[in-house]
Amino acid sequence: MQNQILNLCDFTALVLTDCFTDVQVSLVEAADQNMKVFRNGSAYFNFYSIIYIEVGRVSFCVNGTTLVLEPGNLLFVAPYQLIQFPEEMKGVHMKMVLIESVYYHTVRSVDDEMPKTIVNTFLKLALTTLRQQEFITWYHQLRHAMMKRHLYQASMMKNLIHFGQLFLSELTMGEHQRPHDSGHKENIFRIFIHLAFQYYKVEHQVQFYADRMNITPVYLTRTVKEVSGNTVLAYLQSMLYNEACVQLSSTSKSIGEISEELRFNDQSAFSNFFKLHSGMSPVAYRGNKKDEDG
């Protein structure tokens, strides 16, 4: 493979295993075994690539520049950069987030604050331990959201991609380069999302998250809405609904057990919540999933 132009579907079709994909976003657990077809090849991708090195040491060449990547390094490549793959990746494990370019730009709503480097070039970043944890958490959140189809999946995916854009923006710009108010609000949003994914199963009220961040519920609600276009409650309910779908379709837990784990007042409250979001009861949803799985 030499200098081919590959779209997202082309690329994922060549990856043999450990690839989770939809039309606009793909996640790849990349290693030597499932990336054999790319060995020593080169290609132009017409999608955004975010590559995180978990294990091993590997070299990529982007536009003639050799980049040696080690554990904790992150490589961001914008569309239509020439990428030369290494001859082998033995002992290397990478997490790749691949985003269709039109979708990426549709999500991106902070044009005036995002550096041009995040739009039209490539970057190698060395992440701190905290940033590595944040990236891995984000990756697993994306994978979790992609696993099960549900009413709010598209909205949840868009919010998670937006969060990733803010994460990259913060890494490349630094707080001192951004308008203070904008940077402050984006940081509040980022912290809220981080807290929400930690506590959404047990804490459903805005007050809890505002208290953890030492701000008022009104300010938290207004800031999250301004930065993301969605409310705090919308995020929490989306996470709860997604988790409920996963548990109903992939575990044998009773409706009561799921209700208790997700801290609803009772099974009836959980059933009403689920029916509001899915249009069917938890029992009916589980039955449909069993029928689909054969």
TrEMBL record:
Gene3D superfamilies: Homeodomain-like (1.10.10.60). It comes from the Bacteria. InterPro entries: Homeodomain-like_sf, HTH-like, HTH_AraC. SMART domains: HTH_ARAC. Residues 210-288 form the HTH araC/xylS-type domain. Keywords: DNA-binding, Transcription, Transcription regulation. This is AraC family transcriptional regulator. It comes from Prevotella illustrans. The lineage of its organism: Bacteria, Pseudomonadati, Bacteroidota, Bacteroidia, Bacteroidales.
